[in-house]
Amino acid sequence: MNGLSTVFILVGLFLLGGVISxxxxxxxxxxxxxxxxxxxxxxxxxxxxxxxxx
Length: 54
What we know:
Blueprint (H helix, E strand, L loop, with lengths): L2 H23 L3 H20 L6
Helix pairs in contact: 1-2
C-alpha cells in the first residue's frame, strides 16, 4: 500500500462520513448525492491503486 492509495482511501472514508452526517441532518439530496459520488470515486481510485492487482 503506497501513500497515494492511502490518501485516496482516507479521503473517501471522510467523505462517506460526511454523507452519513448530512443524511441525518436532512440536507438536500443533491448535496448528499454529489458527496456520495465523490466518496465512491475516491474509494475506487484508492482501491485500484493498491499493489495487489499486479
